[in-house]
Design brief:
The chain is α+β, with helices and mostly antiparallel strands. The chain contains seven helices and ten strands. It folds into two domains: 16-79, Winged helix-like DNA-binding domain superfamily/Winged helix DNA-binding domain (Arc Repressor Mutant, subunit A, Orthogonal Bundle), CATH 1.10.10; 85-242, Chorismate lyase (3-Layer(aba) Sandwich), CATH 3.40.1410. It is elongated and about 65 Å long.
Length: 249
């Protein structure tokens, strides 16, 4: 790690150990700290961040649990290639935006783009405002490992030529904004633990009946209209979620 002055906001509601952890994570994702590199000693990290030994140990322990670091007895702590992909629930970003920020290699495989009629499930989200929807099925990979299987629905009337875009190369949020003037504002997410089906287990390369995360998202635009509905099946050991919570006064 290059020697430099690191700013930690001691007046922030975000715990100091978490600020240190996030800074080290960013250095790993950017390549400043590379896989196999020895992490500076506790004393060096204490001096760099101007925090206590306890704070450094909390940050390092969290990075070990998240798969970014590995402790080797009698040798030191080393940087690992992250085995898990963490979604920050405090931010609403597209998959492509998150990947770029984390400096990871990803690919998307589109397995279906079709036009479907409104059904009861879609009517619960969009009401009876739309008769037809585009259904988009994609598999997302991180470092060649399948991360999630996502089924997305967008009203046909809002994006009438959505099927003309290659979503193995293009971000859905970007296409909606640039081509259809749909500006994403916020989203509602619901999380459930389920056992993977046989079909999905083959796609995600996991054993049948393995527990996975079912993530249901309804995305709204700046007119407070629901514009996108997605159902994602995420591998629990690779795809994880985090959020910083503040205690209400």
């Amino acid at each position: 790690m290059q020697e430099m002055i690191v700013k930690i906001d001691k007046n922030s509601h975000i715990p100091l150990y978490y600020q240190v952890k996030e800074d080290i994570t960013q250095r790993i994702n950017s390549g400043e700290l590379s896989e196999g590199e020895l992490l500076p000693s506790e004393n060096d990290l204490m001096n760099m961040y101007s925090v206590s030994r306890t704070t450094i140990r909390q940050a390092v322990d969290l990075l070990v649990r998240e798969g970014f670091l590995e402790k080797r007895r009698g040798v030191g702590t080393f940087v690992l290639k992250p085995k898990s992909f963490f979604w920050d629930l405090a931010e609403l970003r597209s998959f492509d935006e998150v990947i770029k920020r984390k400096g990871l290699k990803s690919t998307t495989k589109v397995i279906n783009v079709s036009k479907v009629k409104r059904n009861k499930e879609l009517e619960e989200v969009f009401g009876d405002n739309y008769d037809y929807f585009y259904q988009l099925d994609r598999i997302r990979y991180i470092e060649n490992d399948p991360l999630e299987l996502v089924t997305t629905y967008v009203p046909f009337d809002l994006a009438p030529y959505l099927d003309q875009f290659d979503f193995s190369e293009n971000s859905l949020f970007t296409v909606l904004r640039n081509e259809f003037n749909i500006n994403i504002k916020y989203a509602d997410k619901t999380f459930n633990a389920i056992n993977v089906t046989k079909e999905d287990s083959e796609i995600l390369n996991i054993k049948k009946n393995t527990a996975i995360q079912l993530v249901i998202t309804v995305t709204y635009d700046d007119h407070n209209r629901p514009v996108e509905y997605s159902v994602s099946r995420d591998r629990g050991l690779i795809s994880r979620f985090k959020v910083i919570l503040s205690r209400a006064d």
